[in-house]
Design goal:
The chain is an alpha+beta fold. About 20% of the residues lie in helices and about 40% in strands. It contains three helices and ten strands, in the order E-E-E-H-E-E-H-E-E-E-E-E-H. The strands form two sheets. Strands 1, 2, 3, 4, 6, 7, 8 and 10 form an eight-stranded mixed β-sheet that branches. Strands 5-9 form a two-stranded antiparallel ribbon. A hairpin with a 2-residue loop joins strand 6 and strand 7. Helix 1 packs antiparallel against helix 3. The longest helix has 13 residues. The protein is globular, with a radius of gyration of 14 Å. The relative contact order is 0.24.
């Protein structure tokens, strides 16, 4: 397990990025051009973000059901990370236009998408460019 203080740089360690578009799952491996494009847009979106106390708790069954509609982005790691005492192997984000912050839903093999979330406040930015990229990738 790797312990991290802040989440802002952890995304660069993802081995895979998965985009869910209305129940269609597309995977991009680290090093591929589309992976780089998504990661660059993500990093731009969160460049001035502040990690805040979470506004929500994920329930695995509900989250898996929600994944079937809308645009979702998932960062998959090759090891277990821990931040603020909360472990994760994946971080899942539901996206839409004009979001100014969002929950990062933690996934572990043991519990699935169950438990407390992280929250990023984009501090004056929104998700428009990232959302448009994911729609057209």
């Amino acid at each position: 397990m790797v312990i991290v203080e802040e989440l802002d740089n952890i995304f660069n360690e993802a081995e895979e990025i998965i985009v869910y578009d209305n129940d269609v799952k597309t995977s991009y491996k680290a090093g591929s051009p589309k992976y780089g494009e998504i990661l660059e847009s993500w990093n731009t979106t969160i460049s001035s973000a502040h990690q805040m106390p979470a506004l929500g708790v994920s329930i695995d069954e509900y989250t898996r059901k929600e994944l079937k509609s809308g645009i979702w982005l998932e960062f998959c790691f090759d090891t277990v990370y821990e931040c603020c005492g909360m472990p994760f192997e994946k971080l899942l984000i539901g996206l839409d236009r004009e979001y100014y912050g969002f929950n990062l839903i933690r996934y572990t093999a043991e519990h699935g998408y169950e438990g407390r979330c992280f929250y990023l406040d984009l501090f004056g930015k929104n998700t428009n460019d990232l959302y448009d990229l994911l729609l057209n990738i």
